[in-house]
Amino acid sequence: MSALMAFSRGIDRVTTFVGRGVSWLVLLVVLVSAGNAIIRKAFDISSNAWLELQWYLFGAIFMLAAAWTLLKNEHIRVDIVSNAVSKRTRDWIDLLGHIFMLLPFTILMLWLLYPYVLQSFMRGETSPNAGGLILWPAKSLLLAGFALLFLQAISELIKRVGVMFFGIEDTTPMGSAHAEVTEMVALAPDRPEGGAEPPVNPPPSNQPRDGGPGVIR
């Protein structure tokens, strides 16, 4: 198991390196988008290449950061179910989900994308738009993204097996939504047994009590 865990940590390092590098593309997308808009409005100059570059950069961010998002446990979950079950049950959901859903899906996408990208590369495919960019690098991002996601799924599967059956410490980060709910529960005031809301002091009233005089205005 130690060898598998070392392999998992190696995948995690690669995923983290790629994810952090790709995160800087967000700034580049903003600069390209703002520059293109300024030049178009100020000088009435534009090109399809700038527009397609924005799409390519967005695709790179989305695809290449998917594995990093999985590593950070930030993919969308059905929190109404996840928060209602025990950690052991969530571990089983993750384990079975990786085996029967995520891994088969990534394998299928790799199998379909490889000839698709290869054919585009061999033909030197370019955009049909005037002044557009070549297409095969953008299509290659699909293949690279699913390859990284497949490797990270293997890493997550190894870690989940280690936690569930070999007593390895669970270092998986808590997703933001689940972490927020957990923090709210932890900071909530204590309630009496039975789950009833704690009594709230009624606001002061200007009505007479027990037959006493009212408030004189």
Automatic annotation (TrEMBL):
Membrane-crossing segments per the record: 53-71, 92-114, 134-154
The keyword Ligase is annotated on this UniProt entry: no
Xref: InterPro entries: DctQ, TRAP_DctQ
Top-rank lineage group of the source organism: Bacteria
One Pfam family matching this protein: DctQ
Keyword Cell inner membrane: yes
Region spans: Disordered: 187-217
Alphabetically ordered keywords of this record: Cell inner membrane, Cell membrane, Membrane, Transmembrane, Transmembrane helix, Transport
Compartment list: Cell inner membrane
Domain Tripartite ATP-independent periplasmic transporters DctQ component, first and last residues per copy: 30-160
Any GO molecular function: transmembrane transporter activity
Main location: membrane
Record-level GO cellular component terms: plasma membrane
Role played: Part of the tripartite ATP-independent periplasmic (TRAP) transport system.
Similarity comment text for this entry: Belongs to the TRAP transporter small permease family.
Assembly and oligomerization: The complex comprises the extracytoplasmic solute receptor protein and the two transmembrane proteins.
Protein name (record): TRAP transporter small permease protein
Organism: Aurantimonas aggregata
Highest classification ranks of the organism: Bacteria, Pseudomonadati, Pseudomonadota, Alphaproteobacteria, Hyphomicrobiales
